[in-house]
Amino acid sequence: MSLKNFYVTTPIYYANSAPHIGSAYTTIVADIIAKYKRFCGYDVYFLTGTDEHGQKILESAKAANKDPQIFCDELAGKFQQLWKEMEISNDDFIRTTQKRHEQVVQKVVQTLLDKGDIYKGKYEGLYCVHDETFWTQEDAIKKEAKHFCPECNRELTWFSEENYFFKLSKYQDDLLKLYEDKPAFVEPDFRRNEMLQIIKGGLRDLSISRTSFDWGIPMPNDPDHVIYVWVDALINYISAVGFGTDQDQLYNQFWPADLHLIGKEINRFHSIIWPALLMALEIPLPEKVFAHGWLTVNGEKISKSTGNAIDPRLLMDAYGKDAIKYYLLRDINFGKDGDFSEDNLIGRINADLANDLGNLVHRTTAMIKQNFNGVVPEPSQEAEGYDLQLKNLFELAVTKYLDNMDHYKFTQALESVWSFIGFANKYIDLTEPWKLAKEEESRKRLASVLYNLSEALRNIALFIKPIMEDTSKEIFRRLGIADRWTDCDYTQLKWGLLVPGSTVIKEAPIFPRIDIEKTSKVIIMNTDAQQTASSAENEKNEGTLIIGFDEFKKVDLRVAEIVAAEPVPKANKLVKLQLNVGEPEPRQIVAGISQFYSTEELVGKKIIVVANLKPAKLMGIKSTGMLLAAKDGENLRLLTVDGDIQPGSKVS
Ligand SMILES: [Zn+2]
What is the pLDDT of residues 353-379, one digit of tens each? Predict the structure, then answer.
């Protein structure tokens, strides 16, 4: 067992809809942190899971016509499946409907009842069913004597019932002291300040039980009440490691958690209610709550209506896990809101991965293959100018990388690695190995240059090991040291550890460039999706296409009286018609009906036309609209009206 422990958690995801790129983002970051800590020699416990109680889930299950437990089983399965496909390295997956969790929740609540920190009282107030959150009159948004949720804008309901309360107010001063003594308890600092303002504004006791539904954990002393889903959910962080049970080895080893990774919308629960509950339990507080920002997709908020952007699998299948992870960490400044843009993702793949990193791998292995039979040469010469520069930049990159990774500044960590990659490429241009290869006396110099490049690559593979595992592994393989990848860690981030003599592998580029013009995009926003779907539908079902009334309504059908008709010269089928469509001027339509009607027959007929068809020219004659006719083999008849009606009347 290592002396250094690290316990990292994601929020447990609410099991009422399938995982999307937003939940994947939090999990990817937590996974990278877990892998980084393991890389740094920590014994890591990485927890994720699903939150499965509460009214919202009960309602979603009802809407899906499913038993709530079966409903939750299915969704929890989807999360587990996705994490497996993404090779997320979680050590545990907790579900709040599991016995191991329920019994700890009841035990915690009983402890607080015994202590008097939970008491029975009457609750009246505004409640958001969607967020399962109470709001005060002041916080609620008022519109025409109604109240709306400041979080989700849904209408709030008035709630009045006897229930149990947690004495949150009792811990106000202790919380203030916590924020003062440990400024890094909540990060980023602007999120900490938001929480501090709430605490300073005064904390009310928290209603922690419900009687209006039963999909939850019963109060241990009063089973007609179920425990508020948020209190239930927060306890997962200690129930998963066996707090309060006789299986508490993991709790003893890993608690307090080092990092609760959350989205900003649930910061209040994690940074105020959770520490207060732990204070009441008299157990140590977590080291840090990190509330990251929200992800939009192509500039739009993620929701079911965003389109397929909610499925991270499609992106992984198209671009690969590593590219997605690299992009998320490099482009989205962790902590702040960010946008997932497919164009920017492709841009990063082409510039940073294919060009910078891919080329360095390719050039280095190619030159070793060409000049040293593919064997990494011995650096047989004293380091000189550019070599020292490369080594110094590497050492600077190590310091910056470790410091930034330790502080969850992933963008900056990757920037320092990529500036080293940039210099390594430049080092090739500066040392000009192709010139060195021409002269026998510069062979030693050539060996040193190619060794240095290989050593740069080995270290780059280490830098990216926690972030892009497949790529890291692949670089080791290309350097002919694949067997050393699994055990390598941060202690090997040192210049000169590469043992010469391994045989490199030169293959196709590790990241092929993506032609942005020729590639069809993975993310289809909903507006695009509808168009694509309906045109595809059109092609499939020509003749039997079923359209909605809205689509039918778009066609402006009108009654038209034929006022004049003349044959079109040189066109043996066409007739030029002047129509009264109830407009100030007659309309001209050209129709291929001359073999079925004489011009005399046509004049005076009241027919049906499509009045809003895009104007066209037939034999150079303008035609504004189209008449309706029915065809049966060789026979054609115009659609006419039954009885007298004003020209221009709308057909519906
Ligand atoms: Zn709400």
Answer: 999 999 999 999 999 999 999 999 999
Helices (H), 132-262: 172-181, 189-200, 229-234, 236-239, 249-254
Rounded distance from Cα 226 to ligand 1 centre (Å): 20
Query: Ligand 1 centre from 377 Cα, in Å?
Result: 64
- Could you tell me the pTM of the whole model? 0.77
SS (H, E, C) 290-348: EEECCEEECCEECCHHHEHHHCHHHHHHHHCHHHHHHHHHHHCCCCCCEEECHHHHHHH
CA of 230 from ligand 1 middle (Å) equals 14
Q: Where in the chain is the domain with CATH 2.170.220.10?
A: 112-227
Average pLDDT for 16-33: 91
**Residues 6+ away with beta carbon under 8 Å from 392:** none
Q: What is the fold, at CATH topology level, of the domain defined by 5-102+231-312?
A: Rossmann fold (3.40.50)
Give the C-alpha separation, 196 to 182, whole Å: 12
CATH 2.40.50.140 region(s) of the chain? 549-651
Cα(492) to centroid(ligand 1), Å:
50
Q: Where in the chain is the domain with CATH 3.40.50.620?
A: 5-102+231-312
Whole-angstrom Cα distance, residue 318 to residue 301? Answer: 22
What are the structure tokens assigned to 612, written together? Answer: 């809003």
Q: Residue 198: phi, psi to the nearest 5?
A: -65, -45
Q: Which CATH number fits domain 112-227: 3.30.559.10, 1.10.10.10, 3.20.20.140, 2.170.220.10?
A: 2.170.220.10
> Which of 359, 365, 387 lies closest to 377 in space, CA to CA?
365
pLDDT tens track for 439-497: 999 999 999 999 999 999 999 999 999 999 999 999 999 999 999 999 999 999 999 99
- Best-predicted range by mean pLDDT among 70-74, 333-337, 645-649? 70-74
Residue 34 Cα to ligand 1 middle (Å): 32
CATH T-level topology, domain 341-492: Isoleucyl-tRNA Synthetase; Domain 1 (1.10.730)
CA of 141 to the centre of ligand 1 (A): 11
Residue 123 alpha carbon to ligand 1 centre in Å: 18
Residue 128 has, within 13 A of its CA and on its CB side, a CA count of 20
Q: Which class does domain 549-651 fall in?
A: mainly beta
Q: Can you tell me the distance from the alpha carbon of 208 to that of 202, in angstroms, rounded to the nearest whole number?
A: 18
396 within 8 A of 321, measured Cβ to Cβ: no
